[in-house]
Amino acid sequence: MADFTRELKVPHQIDFIAASSYGLSTVSSANVKIKKDLDAPIVGKDVLILDEMCDSGRTMACLKQMFHDRGAKSVRACVLLNKAERRAVEDLHLDYVGFECEDEFLVGYGMDWAQRFRSLKDVSVVKRSAYSA
To answer: Which of the following is catalytic: 15, 55, 91, 95?
Structure first.
């Protein structure tokens, strides 16, 4: 978020929402939970959802619909990493994608595994042997 907003040249405000379908697992539960909601209303505003990754698409689809329902003027989605091959939501449109990536479990640069490894400065692949039996 900080790297992105330093480069953003249009006037903007930032708010945060914490939503997840993973919990402590490495696989989406298909149940999106809002852990922390927005602080400010978005009625009549152009909203850009910025996320580090989109894989199943469930969380992004849920947020886009929720923001439309709350009266946003427009809702767009921007992700650093897109795992299109894992998409469970077929009609999800991402407006801005940094990189397409393969189906690997990634940590670092804001992404965590059970609240660990989020602060790594690089994106790293977790070996499958570390989380599969």
So the answer is: 55
Q: Tell me: the pLDDT tens digits for 59-82? A: 999 999 999 999 999 999 999 999
Instruction: Please give the domain boundaries of the chain with CATH numbers for all domains.
Output: 2-104 (3.40.50.2020)
CA dist., res. 111 & res. 70, Å (int): 27
DSSP conformation class of 95: S
Q: How many residues does the structure list for the chain?
A: 133
How many angstroms from the chain centroid is the CA of residue 6? Answer: 19
Q: How many CA atoms lie within 13 A of 107 on its CB side?
A: 17
- Is-catalytic flag, 55? yes
The secondary structure of residue 127, as a DSSP letter, is: P
